[in-house]
What does this fold into?
Amino acid sequence: MCGIVGYIGKRNAQSILVEGLKKLEYRGYDSAGIAMFTTDGLQVRKAKGRLAVLESNLETAPLEGTVGIGHTRWATHGKPSDVNSHPHTDGSMKFSVVHNGIIENYLELKEELIAQGHRFVSETDTEVISHLISREYDGDIVKAVQRAIRHMRGAYALGVLTEYEPDRLVAVRNASPLIIGIGDGEHYIGSDIPAILEHTRDVFILNDGEMAVLTKDAVELMTIEGNFISREMIYVDWDVARAEKAGFDHFMLKEIHEQPKAYRDTMRGRIDEEGRSVILPELKMTANDIRAIRNVHIVACGTAYHAGLIGKTVLENCARLPVEVDVASEYRYRSPLITPETLVIVVSQSGETADTLAALREAKRCGARVLAITNVVGSSVAREADDVLITWAGPEIAVASTKAYTSQLIAFYLFGLYCAQTLGTQDAAWIAEVLAALQSLPEQVENMLEQAETVRAYAEEIAQHEHLFFIGRGVDYAVVMEGSLKLKEISYIHSEAYAAGELKHGTLALIEDGIPVIALATQSALLEKTVSNIKEVKARGAVVLGISDTGHVAALGKAVDHVLAIPATHPLLTPALSVVPLQLLAYYASLARGNDVDKPRNLAKSVTVE
Ligand code: F6R
It folds into this structure.
């Protein structure tokens, strides 16, 4: 994920910026750069690749100055490259910008600016911001930034410099974090605390819709409308390791808590303003291409495969197309019936999983159209697929996937609804109803995360066991498969996920006194059946945790030993909520067992061997 650092003061900014960027490396990036005021005016150095590449450029051509901004980029608009790296400048090299986030209407703005004579060199949304600010400038950088952002829609944290006012650094926050560090005769900006922690622990945290104007001697805080505000300074007493995790004990917990943002970012710019239809401008496939699809194959590994199982239900419901889901390592070897009318959807967080890539190539060899759902712009899967839907979860650092999985679900919902509106397989009222529910999910997840302590207590109990079972029907079955995988990989507790009705065909023999069973039952139509299955295991001594939504939890509560309620939503969307307590359960069980939560034994984050 992109990182920002900025400095204004009395020391040479170059090393402060580079060292600050090094502290942000843990977030993942593909290029880096800095801009500084020097005696030769505003100068930029930037390079694709690791920070070492930028450092070596700076060794050859160092910069001298006391004001600057720096950035680590994780590609969003445009591939990783020198020219797409930040900072970006306007054509006159008088303005420079670093940006985290996404400008939704950048194409519109870019066309307008091109028509007004602006020339662009990169594929990024950020370059539009530097041109906009330059257009709006009439002698006051603060006012120019305020006017420019009135034209922008989306999420942004910005650091802005202009050569015309070399004693000012402007910072803006809207839906992308930014903090201001306070020193003695020097000030800093940072997208995260680690970027500046070496220099100061006194910070102001900007809220959305706020900005800061920094000089070496003062910091002014104001709303983006220009009304001055006062804010209490916060003293950060975290160590660097905790600061990297934004105060969470582990990356996994941080990433679980980042899910509301990942949902919002994955939906951003993809739903029309009235909330009635899905817009996916990034897809090259036309309405006719969608009409030509006769069947869909979803292919992925591990957690991404589990997202694919939900994707099947979503596409079958929305688009009324037959969908098969395959584990990528099996797909090629079963001679799948792929035709040019098959849409193959590969799902991969990293975009580099060897089996998924091999399946993609096999699908293309057979003439299918391939759509990739991936979290990494410029990854192998993204480059080789015909169409790409990026999940904007940001880099995932914990080995156990959480926010990438749920963002994949959001991508499936958006694509499913897009097919429904293209094919006319669902009416407009149904689509609008699902879209409304979809947009409520981030807030619902936020509310659910407040219940983490309840899950923790239960997790500490199951951490004492060596075996347990998860059961569910329909999409709940697919979700418990993910819950079971999560628990296995980080707590090392053996668990199995079963279709609730299937237990009695053999596995029931393993149920004995005291064995924990986690039953997910969010679907009204299947509730009674699942309750019957719960009774079967309870009669054999199982201790059952039932999870359902607020509408059904009372009925379920009568049949189980413990109960957990999740918020109610559209039946198709429940996986995006119900998986969250299962992620927390795995996390706290792993913690209770003293395991290395973020780096479980025997596992790697990206599996690039078949
Ligand atoms: C489990 C997990 C793995 C990955 C799988 C595919 O938490 O992360 O099961 O989902 O290795 O990886 P990607 O999505 O990168 O293709």
Q: What stands out?
A: The longest strand covers residues 95-103.
